[in-house]
Every structure is written in structure tokens, then in C-alpha cells.
Request: fold
Amino acid sequence: MSGYNTYLDEEESEVQDIKGVTDEVTKMCYTNAKYPFICIDHDLEMPKHKWVAVSKMVKQTTSDKGIFFYIKNGNDLYEAGSLAKSQVKAIIDLVGLDNIIGYYSEDKELKGDRLYVLA
Reply:
């Protein structure tokens, strides 16, 4: 078997982490999320008229759409659309600060009053 190495070189045996799979797993580890974003849980109990208002805000089209909006279902995150920065405060008022988690960037989680940074 000339020409074949029966051992692995040190470089070949190095394992590379795959983000969100083999590296450090955090509470919000989503590989395809776009930042900044806010998300709410799909099980959130809210009157129907509030859900309708939220869905209409997400569907509106403006040139100022800059905050992505996701709905969390268990460990899955579904993109529902995007919001204008001016709509973030209204979403917070409808849903409540305790029911929203936001991320400014991959490592900058926003909760409570810090969510207003996105507005």
C-alpha cells in the first residue's frame, strides 16, 4: 500500500465546530435567524383582536422594515415577516414586555425595557 497513509495527520483529525450544532448551544440558537429580531411564543394567550392587529402590522409594507418578526414554536423559529422600527413599540404594547424576546445581534439578547432599543 505505497502512497497511502494509515494514520491521520494532526491537521486532518481536527474537528471543526458547526455553529448551533456542535459548538456551544445557547437558549436561542438559530442558524438562519436574521438580526435584529423580536419573537413571541405561538402558545401566547392573547385576545383574537390583538392577534389580528399583530398580523396586520407584520403584513404592512413600508420602506422602513428593519426588524424581523419570528414566532417561536418549541425549539423552532418561524419567520412571520418584518416590522418597521416605528411599529415595535405598538407590538410591545399589544403583546407585553414579558412575552417578547429580542435580539439585536447574535450575542445581544434584549428583554424587558431593553426591547425599546429596537424601536
Q: What stands out?
A: DSSP finds two helices and five strands in the chain. The radius of gyration is 20 Å. The mean pLDDT is 78. The longest helix spans residues 48-59.
